UniProtKB/TrEMBL annotation:
Domain FAD dependent oxidoreductase stretches: 25-363
Record's protein name: FAD dependent oxidoreductase
Cofactor(s) this protein requires: FAD
Keyword Transmembrane helix: yes
Gene Ontology terms: biological process: D-amino acid catabolic process
A molecular function (GO) term: D-amino-acid oxidase activity
Amino acid sequence: MTPPNPTTSPSSTPTTSPSSTPTFLILGAGVIGLTTALVLRAHYPTANITIAAKHFPGDRSIEYASPWAGANWASFAHDNGPLEKYDEVTFRKFAEIAERWPEVGIGRMGMWGVFDARIEETDLLTEATGKIWYDELVGGLRNLDETELPKGAVFGLEFPSTFRINTQIYLQWLQHRALTHNITLHRQHFPSLTALLTTFPRTTLLINASALGSLHLTDVHDTALYPTRGQTVLITEPATPIPRMYFRSPKRVDPETTYVFPRPLGGGVILGGSRQADNWSAEPDMELAQDIMRRCVELAPELGRVEDLQVVSHNVGLRPSRIGGPRIELERSSHRVPVVHNYGHSGAGYQSSWGTAERAVELVKKALSPAAKL
Ligand SMILES: Cc1cc2nc3c(=O)[nH]c(=O)nc-3n(C[C@H](O)[C@H](O)[C@H](O)COP(=O)(O)OP(=O)(O)OC[C@H]3O[C@@H](n4cnc5c(N)ncnc54)[C@H](O)[C@@H]3O)c2cc1C
Ligand SMILES: *[C@@H]1O[C@H](CO)[C@@H](O)[C@H](O)[C@H]1NC(C)=O
Ligand SMILES: *[C@@H]1O[C@H](CO)[C@@H](O)[C@H](O)[C@H]1NC(C)=O
Ligand SMILES: *[C@@H]1O[C@H](CO)[C@@H](O)[C@H](O)[C@H]1NC(C)=O
């Protein structure tokens, strides 16, 4: 790899002078660890960067959330603050990726969101403004007509243009990009943080992108973390192409949300879903699967009847949820090296990935800046 020209790269700061080339260690190779590694590389062209993890793209395990996501961009944020910002940064980055590299699994598509409650009860509105913050970003939301709404629905919104993700292809691309940017991959399960830092004694700074994984590390325990079980059904593309994504829900986030996400690049269609807090069960629940399929055919007429669906697989993933939201924070005290946390993205890991990675790298810069050492 030819290092980028230092005069034009963001790394031309005192923190990366050759005499102090930092050595970064990232724990976790889900969408968060991989994206953070790429943003880190863009800011530190000559640093040593290693991603250490038990699971990498291609693996399918209940301990690895990323392959199981739907996935799409449909923000849950309404804080008039950092969470909206993370999703906005990611939306713009997805637009750039979809435009430049149509083959990497991010595609534009419209969506219909159908709600079974009044808008004030849906958590769609940002309290401070009384508006839906991403209205313009998605091309101007349109209210669905009565005739477009399924029976019993209260209202619906068309998102003219958002993103859907073929997670299988996109994760592989992130990993491939890491490799072409001289990021080292190291596969190992670490029973503890002590074991991790013993294996990598030269680490300058650790990025913690281990999601639910650290509940099993013997010397750490963030009790704010909990799984939110999500079950989906992957089906083949139906004879009638599906022109848009669909979701239906009483609220933006609800245990009973129904969704239909056609994946780009021959990825089939994901039917969902469920949101079962504190449930670790990895076994598909076949009764729930029937219920998901029934709800989906009701919502997306292109699917036909339940009997017409060709099931490829029943899937279960655990969203890394966290009381208080994602933790993106610099911690200097409790460990030998500074730690930047980037975990607990729950059901929003893809749609907030680039924004949270940029925030994490800002914190890395803060931790390594000469002023910080005074
Ligand atoms: C059904 C479902 C639908 C979803 N839909 C969407 C969607 O539409 N849009 C969206 O944005 N998000 C969606 N999500 C959420 C998204 O999948 C997660 O937020 C995201 O994958 C979290 O990524 P992560 O990198 O933090 O965690 P993970 O992908 O779980 O990665 C954790 C990494 O840490 C490693 N690790 C942990 N502990 C250790 C250890 N002790 N030693 C070594 N390695 C360790 C693991 O091996 C792994 O590499 C959905 C999730 C599910 C389950
Ligand atoms: C790639 O990274 C390794 C280890 O971090 C380093 O020793 C090597 O010099 C780097 N190669 C290039 C071409 O930058
Ligand atoms: C990493 O995050 C986990 C939760 O995923 C937390 O329990 C743990 O304390 C963190 N590790 C470090 C190095 O602080
Ligand atoms: C967890 O989810 C499974 C599958 O839906 C269900 O059978 C089981 O009863 C749930 N367990 C708990 C503790 O809620």
